[in-house]
Every structure is written in structure tokens, then in C-alpha cells.
Design brief:
alpha/beta; 8 helices; single chain; about 300 residues
Length: about 300
């Protein structure tokens, strides 16, 4: 079984369904409320476990009831949470999430101000037996040592880069693979065209790079040429966590030895299936769901 260590943030999400996302101050009524575990790296870890991998999560939680609930929920998905750091006196991450009728969302997050600064970094012995490291951008003090440990031993060290890497100096430089959100890559490089932006990324990281673009699919370079995998057409009801699912599936696929285009396609399918289901983490597909979905779709290439 392929083991993936996911390093970063875990959150308790309070998800409220609304007809449309608010554009002005005021009082609004939700049509539905769901409380579910969330967070970029945590959702990726739950995805790895759901898809049949061995998932290990490293992150920071406060010593509060929310932290207890977050850790217990991850464990219920089959994720190893022994590496979670509990930080005394700090608040665990919590998000209020508004989801509109089209599945788009608005997220407001809160966490203790010192939650990610006082925790012990991930130590090399904690990564023994791990085949892949995947990190988000929220805990650089834990992510960078983990990425370096993986890369130094010839294992994939993957970063989900969904916001300015300047907020986490050194993180994309430590990676072997970086999957950017396309808007983030454009801001980093100053290039609008995906091909130019991907090529310019070499000035910022030595890693292989790709860029996700939501409903426009995913871009990467192959022998210097731009490649694009189109997004799978689905009736989206909730996009919350779809990017996290993509990255968890991609990391597992790379760890299983799939070629990168195939890993990207598999990850795109996982994200697409998730978008057809409400509830953030509760919509993560299992491997049989993904296999069934892909049977009805042509390969990209």
C-alpha cells in the first residue's frame, strides 16, 4: 500500500447553503447547515485513505474541543493522526463556509495566531515508510523539512501551491513537484498565458510544475510544449474541497507509479466526482467510484 504523508492544515468547517453568495452586508438565511472536517492537507489525507492509500497527517491543532473533534474525524477516515501537534492555549482552525446554488463557495477562516509557529517540525524518523510527501502552504515550518527529507531520499515531494509562495519562503524550492492554482502562478510569474507562466516558474522552483484552472482543466509542459487536460463535465453542486481532493489523488497516483499525465487525469476525475456531491469532505469519492466514473469517459490523449 502506498503511504502518503500530508502536511499542513486541518479545519472544522461549518458549511451553510445559501441561494446566492452575499454581495452586501445584511442578514441572510441558510437553507442547510453541515459541520464537517476540512482543511487542505487534511482533506487530501482523507482522499488518500478513501482511494485505498495509507494516509498520515501532520498538522497543528489547539488544545480545545474543536481540535479533539478535528482529529477524531480524520481518524474515522482511516488517517494516522499520531503526528498531530497540539499547541496549548491556541484555537484550532475553524471556517464558516457559504455555498451557493451553483456550488461556488465563500470561506472565512480563523485559527490561533501562534498555532503554526510554536510546533515541532516534522522529523525524518516520522517519515520512515512514507512513499510521498504532500504539503499545503499553511505550515511552512512543518512542510519544508518534510519536503526536503522526501526529496533527499528520492521520493516525490509535492506542494499544493494555492496562494502566494512569498507567504511561505522556501517551500516551492524544496519540492520535486508543484501544482499551482493558475491564478497563483500568473501572479508569481507575471505571465498571463499558461505556457509562458509554466516556463517562467523555472525561475522560482526546480520542480516539475502544473497548474489547475478549475472548469478549464489542468495545464503542464511536456517536452517544452503546453499540454492541457480538460475538466470532466459534471453537474457541480459543491466545489468545497475539490482542489484538496485533486491533490490527494494526484499524490497517491504519483506514489503508485502512474505517469504524470495519467496521474493528473485520475486526480481531475476525483475532483469532478467530488463536485457532484454536497458536503466538502463528505463528498470524497472512493476508488470504486472513481473507476466507475472513468469507465464512461475517454482518455485525454
Amino acid at each position: 500500500m502506498t503511504a502518503v504523508a500530508c502536511v499542513g492544515i486541518a479545519v472544522l468547517d461549518i458549511v451553510l447553503n445559501v441561494p446566492t453568495l452575499p454581495a452586501t452586508p445584511g442578514k441572510y438565511r441558510a437553507t442547510r447547515r453541515t459541520e464537517v472536517g476540512g482543511g487542505v492537507a487534511a482533506n487530501a489525507a482523507a482522499t488518500v485513505a478513501a482511494l485505498g492509500g495509507e494516509a498520515v497527517f501532520f498538522g497543528c491543532l489547539g488544545d480545545d474541543a474543536a481540535g479533539d473533534r478535528i482529529a477524531a474525524d480524520l481518524a474515522s477516515w482511516g488517517v494516522d493522526v499520531a503526528g498531530v501537534r497540539r499547541v496549548p492555549g491556541e484555537a484550532s482552525p475553524l471556517s464558516a463556509v457559504l455555498v451557493d446554488a451553483g456550488g461556488e463557495r465563500l470561506i472565512v477562516n480563523h485559527a490561533g495566531t501562534a498555532l503554526f509557529t510554536g510546533a515541532t517540525p516534522v522529523q525524518p524518523p516520522e517519515l520512515e515508510g512514507v512513499d510521498v510527501v504532500l504539503t499545503d502552504m499553511r505550515w511552512p515550518g512543518g512542510a519544508i523539512p518534510a519536503l526536503r527529507t522526501a526529496a533527499a531520499t528520492g521520493k516525490p515531494a509535492i506542494v499544493d501551491c494555492d496562494h502566494d509562495p512569498g507567504d511561505a519562503p522556501g517551500i516551492i524550492e524544496a519540492a520535486t513537484h508543484v501544482v499551482f492554482a493558475l491564478p497563483t502562478l500568473r501572479r508569481l510569474t507575471g505571465c498571463e498565458r499558461p505556457a509562458d507562466a509554466l516556463r517562467a516558474a523555472a525561475d522560482h522552483t526546480p520542480a516539475w510544475v502544473a497548474a489547475t484552472a478549475g472548469s478549464d482543466g489542468v495545464y503542464w509542459l511536456d517536452d517544452g510544449g503546453l499540454r492541457r487536460g480538460p475538466a470532466f463535465p459534471v453537474n457541480a453542486v459543491d466545489t468545497l474541497g475539490a482542489g484538496d481532493v485533486f491533490h490527494g489523488a494526484f499524490a497517491l497516483a504519483v506514489g503508485e507509479g502512474r505517469e504524470l499525465p495519467d496521474a493528473l487525469r485520475w486526480a481531475s476525475a476525483a475532483a469532478a466526482v467530488k463536485c457532484t456531491r454536497f458536503g466538502g469532505r463528505e463528498g470524497i469519492p472512493h476508488r470504486n467510484d472513481l473507476d466507475t466514473f472513468l469507465e464512461g469517459h475517454d482518455p485525454w490523449m
